[in-house]
Amino acid sequence: SIGMAKSKFEYVRNFETDDTCLKNCYIVVRLDGRNFHKFSEQHNFLKPNDDRALGLMTRSARSVMEDLDDIVVSYGQSDEFSFVFKRTSNWFKRRASKLMTHVASQFSSSYVFYWKEYFGDQPLLYPPGFDGRVVLYPSNRNLRDYLSWRQADCHVNNLYNTVFWTLVQKGRLTTAQAEDRLKGTLAADKNEIMFSEFDLNYNNEPLAHRKGTALIWEKMEETVTKRVKLPNEEEKEVPVTRTRRRVSACHSDIIGDQFWEEHPDILEA
Ligand code: ATP
Ligand code: ATP
Ligand code: MG
Ligand code: MG
Ligand code: MG
Ligand code: MG
């Protein structure tokens, strides 16, 4: 048969390089939408924040967490999502390319699969893509700083985008004029423009826009009744309690300590 003996071609397998992720480190896979500036325009995303698009990103990330192993927390904003594998994960022998490509392809296919649930009659015009990268973080502090960095990025971008689109949509400035107006402004200046000229308090903007979305595993007790039939006995119903877990979304601050104190099981000792 052809299956048993090694073919003379098989040596090429040795050209594969080892990309095993260092032990004991958190493995982070971050995805980012390819050319979403254009994608968002062509699909009429509302500016600065289209909730359909954010919902679809979150739905796709949920599918990644449910369908792949060992992801303990994920965090997303704009067109990006970061997935954190537990330190002790041995999924695919910690091979970086396997982990990253499984995350990227599960996410991308989910984005297309669930498109209609979020965008309804707005057609998907072409297949979107996402790039991926793998980064290892050896300590809880490093991992928290990584997630803090992404949330701080969310804040800075969202503050800018919110005042920018307010100037365009309510202030009737062109995009070039709005850009000019914001050159060199600090956070306080941006808040002041919104407050004094548009009566808009940035702190009242939706949490989902200001903080992004974290997905965590939530444990819950579930009691179901099971019908049991023992030999020579009547069939009866017995309650069976089991702990199930499900992915839950929140828009909390993840930079401070509170979130981590409330969810001590995300990070390992
Ligand atoms: P690259 O391929 O290098 O990532 P990009 O065009 O995707 O290029 P990003 O820096 O990733 O650039 O920025 C993503 C852009 O997608 C944002 O600047 C914004 O214009 C748009 N975008 C993403 N999500 C949303 C959303 N929910 N609502 C409105 N616009 C969005
Ligand atoms: P893994 O996740 O490890 O790749 P797998 O089930 O995908 O597991 P593969 O070794 O990749 O295993 O084999 C793919 C299998 O998919 C084949 O063995 C075959 O059963 C099935 N398959 C793939 N393409 C076709 C096809 N065109 N027609 C029929 N079966 C197919
Ligand atoms: Mg980019
Ligand atoms: Mg992008
Ligand atoms: Mg991006
Ligand atoms: Mg296969």
From TrEMBL:
Please provide the record's keywords in A-Z order.
Answer: GTP-binding, Magnesium, Metal-binding, Nucleotide-binding, Nucleotidyltransferase, Transferase, tRNA processing
Q: Which reaction does it catalyse?
A: a 5'-end ribonucleotide-tRNA(His) + GTP + ATP + H2O = a 5'-end phospho-guanosine-ribonucleotide-tRNA(His) + AMP + 2 diphosphate + H(+)
Domain Thg1 C-terminal per the UniProt entry, residue ranges: 141-256
Write the Enzyme Commission number(s) for this entry. 2.7.7.79
BP GO annotations: tRNA modification
Question: Which free-text remark accompanies the cofactor?
Answer: Binds 2 magnesium ions per subunit.
Q: Which residues bind Mg(2+) 1?
A: 32-33, 79
The subunit structure is: Homotetramer. Interacts with MFN1 and MFN2; functions as a guanyl-nucleotide exchange factor/GEF for MFN2 and also probably MFN1.
Spell out the protein name for this chain.
tRNA(His) guanylyltransferase
